[in-house]
Design a protein that fits this description.
- The structure is a single chain.
- This protein is α+β, with helices and mostly antiparallel strands.
- The protein folds into 3 domains: 187 residues, no CATH class; 172 residues, Beta-Lactamase (2-Layer Sandwich), CATH 3.30.450; 241 residues, Phosphatase 2c, domain 1 (4-Layer Sandwich), CATH 3.60.40.10.
- Strands 7-6-5-10-9-8 form a 6-stranded antiparallel beta sheet, sandwiched between helices. A 5-stranded antiparallel beta sheet has the order 11-20-19-16-17. The protein has a 5-stranded antiparallel beta sheet with strand order 12-13-14-15-18.
- Helix 1 packs antiparallel against helix 2 and helix 3 runs antiparallel to helix 4.
- It is elongated, with a radius of gyration of 36 Å.
- 36% of the residues are buried.
- About 5% of the residues have low confidence.
Length: 751
Amino acid sequence: MIFAIINIVICAVLVYISFSIDKNVKGNSSNANLVNLFLFLGVIFFFMAVTIMLCLHNSVQHTLLLNPDGTQSLHVEQRNSFLAALLSGRFTYLLMGWFSVCACSYMLIFPDYKKCKAVTFFQVLLFILAVYMVFFAPNAFTSVSLATGNFLRISSGIVFKGKLSGAFNVSWLTLYNFLYRVVIPAFVCVMVIVRAENTNSKLKQQNMLQNVFGIMLSWVVFWYMNLCSEIQPVLNNFVPIGFIPGMYFFARSNSNDEIVDARILLMGFVRLLIGFIAPMLASAVFFMLLLPVSNVNILIFELLIYVAIAFVFFVFMLFRRKFKNSELFRNKMYSEDFERDITSIDFSLEANEITGSVFNVFKKYVGSSSMKILIDDGVGNMSCIYSSDGDKSFSTPIDQSVSDVLMNNHHQIVFREFAQKNNSFASVRSKILGVVDSTNSDAMIMLNEGRQFIGLILLGKKISGNIYSEYDYEVFNKFYSNFFVVGYYVKNIMNEAVVGTVNREIRMSGQIITSIQENMDLIKSKKIDAGYLMVPAHNIGGEFVDMIRLTDTRHIFEIGALSGKGIAASMGMVILKSIIRTFLSETTDFKLLVAKVNTFIRENLPKGTFFAGTFGILDFSTDTMYYINCGIPALLVYTRAYNNVIEVQGEGHILGFVKDVAPYIKVKKVKLSEGDIVMIVTDGIIDTKSLRGDIFGKTRTQNALMENSGYPAEKMAKFTYDALVEFTSKELENDITMLVMKYLGNQAAQA
């Protein structure tokens, strides 16, 4: 029973591995082929366990024999396996032959995974031959039983009869194993080696040869198990283990994206040692040491084997966890250095120096051979604004279908290999590959603001010849917001066709930040008069107001401040304004929108960045304002009916501190009537001090609101600011931002 259980455990491990591979990259056709192979091998181990258990139920024949001296002795003879065990054993060996054929087919279509009719034809032909040899050949598989010692014994007749049997004394079982485990794989290995020699890509060549090496290692394991089975016949119960080395290298070549050097070879050997060889050897040692116990008490033997195997797997799982994120097990961990350099780029430099600095970061840490930046030229084309090789001649029409597919799949970053394999991009694959082929690129970073396309960053092939890896994707995705800033810079500074000639002395200055700050959908409803004011203390800052039209009757607004001052805060503001619009295109849930903004600030902006402000929605059809307070100091509402000002901000939670802000924020609402006024201000107004040390405070802010309530919203904001300046009698030290909304009601709308 212990041997059946071990086979079932191996089956479970293979199924687990198949699910792990399947989760790595959804829609990847290469993964689907590999997953099927792992599941197929798991099924073989399962049927091997079934065969062993069926053989355990064989009846035993006891016969009393009369000895010549007149005494009697008991003769024990195990009968041949009954039909179920025989069928199960035959089917298990049939599956092993089929698996070998499928593994060979996988090697032939790897790494492009293009279906080939010739491969399919020979695969079916070999399937049929295997069925004949196992089930219909005369005396092929005559019996399946457990011999003394509980090892699986398969009896098979001789292939040739008569005179040929003397010269070729080969059984059907031996011929079957030799044909499907050696001859067919050897022929396929030769074909793969020839294909590899004629492949231009060094990486593909290496991965194809890695598959061949896996098959050769499987031959060694089969040979060694056959040799050892003469000493320990119980190894016959684990014959399919010989396929595992080949599967290991299939999985390695499928996920490998680096050309092997001495360091990677060492890393791969250590992985193989810790993940496969050492656990198997340790288990084998325990098995051999405990085997004598089986002669004394089989139950104690089985219990000790369970404990030993559990102990071995536990120890090696600890090893894998310990070294999972070590430098040895993850090549070129450049994330922190990449972040330091990409975030320290000085946007006050000349345009070519800035874009050159961006390319140098990619070249230094990623190994990109070139970089091009394409942007929307305003007339429906993507034009090359920067090229590391100086060639800016490339231009291509904008295809909205491509950007739609990428955004719908949340893949603004696409690598050539990923586009070739992933079925999610099937409809636009040719267009994506057309762009990267035309520019000799291997990676594409799409820049977008909400659903609006801005441009592309195209990265050339790696200098080392490797492809862009999963780790590269993780890093690029993590710092996408920084790439967006570069794109915004290029669009607003370098694209003279869009913004005209810009003075070289004011690159990325207050004029640009102001233009981005004021890029909003102003409220045009006759029901409301909205005005705002933004005055940074140091030319540029991190405070902003934004308005976004949702429908004819609904408008969203945001007002707030990012921590910090100067260029760093202003860059964060640019990123945050854009990402809010992107999130609005993905979700219609108001509270979820704020929660996603919190997550973005916490995970993507520099550590320690936080946002204090308010998000609101104006619904003109119901005369209602919905809002979420995220740490705004004052949200004031003047009610005309009572001629007074009340604070309605309530408790709020600043964004960027906690991982999940949803439990701490609430959606509130205020019913607006004709003549009501909403004023929202940041802490720059409330906390500003006079020369005597007095703060302007909420009381003076409320008084300014009352005193100026008869003026339009824009002038109310201006007069409140004038009162603040008069109060301080000195240069302002804080950014000042306010939003005023006068509700005019239905009479104004009808007028």
